[in-house]
Amino acid sequence: KAGVTQTPRYLIKTRGQQVTLSCSPISGHRSVSWYQQTPGQGLQFLFEYFSETQRNKGNFPGRFSGRQFSNSRSEMNVSTLELGDSALYLCASSLGGDSSEKLFFGSGTQLSVL
Amino acid sequence: AQSVTQLDSHVSVSEGTPVLLRCNYSSSYSPSLFWYVQHPNKGLQLLLKYTSAATLVKGINGFEAEFKKSETSFHLTKPSAHMSDAAEYFCVVISSGGYNKLIFGAGTRLAVHP
Q1: Residues in B lying within 8 Å of A, measured between beta carbons
Q2: What is the DSSP code string of A35-58?
Q3: What per-residue confidence (pLDDT) applies to B92?
Q4: DSSP structural state of residue B84
Q5: Any chain B CB within 8 A of the CB of A38?
Q6: Which of A82, A90, A93, B41 counts the highest number of beta carbons within 10 A?
Q7: Are strands A19-24 and A74-78 parallel, antiparallel or unpaired?
Q8: How many CB pairs under 8 A join A and B?
Q9: How far is Cα A48 from Cα A55, in angstroms, rounded to an integer?
Q10: Distance CA B56, CA A72 (A)
């Protein structure tokens, strides 16, 4: 069974640009959540989607948005990039029926903002 | 609000000696707690989880953790460290908001020396 796939693996952008990251969950998983990992702030929850609906959202500005498609694939978008958005963005998937169930993480997309 | 505090940012052990990674939690109700591991350039992998069943939880790769309500602790242990255990370990609690909104500790980097 294929794992969680995140593309691209690495991304370099400049301030003010926007970026879209993609996440393909494990087949059959309907929940996709996104996390930002930085050396200073650690791992922080961005948002979670289930059946194309955002069920939960972290404390990030509106420049961070996401969506989920009918096949459960998810994208997150960051507009008007700032230097502080440089981070590893991790996606996780799960079946979605229980908040304490196991999450499966992808290897992440490393975003560098110059 | 839920939170976790990892008491050591770095732990160094010799191969074959015991491992102890410490975590204290704060929660207004009985929490769901996890330990995740992150190897370099890899995503996060679940080691074990506590969800109010047995207080001693066994995980993968010989790790286990004990939930102690009186001490609000959930320390991770392993009797004998292996070189492959070198990684970053995260203690995690589920936010009261649920829906896979995980709150991560700052992480403990484990070094294993020959």
Answers
A1: 32, 41-46, 49, 51, 90, 94-95, 97-107
A2: EEEETTTEEEEEEEEETTEEEEE-
A3: 94
A4: G
A5: no
A6: A93
A7: antiparallel
A8: 62
A9: 6
A10: 35
Contact A107 B97 (CB under 8 A): no
Counting every residue written for chain B, the total comes to 114
> Cβ distance A11 to A112 under 8 Å?
yes
pLDDT at A97: 66
The string of pLDDT tens digits covering residues A42-89 is: 999 999 999 999 998 999 999 999 999 999 999 999 999 999 999 999
pLDDT tens, N- to C-terminus, chain B (114 residues): 789 999 999 999 999 999 999 999 998 777 889 999 999 877 899 999 998 778 899 999 999 999 999 999 999 999 999 999 999 999 999 877 666 788 999 999 999 999
> Which letter does DSSP use for residue B60 in this model?
G
Using CA coordinates, name the residue in chain A closest to B94. Answer: A100
Angle CA A64–A25–B6, to nearest 5: 65
Helix (H, G, I), strand (E, B) or coil at B61: helix
**Closest chain B residue by Cα to residue A3:** B43
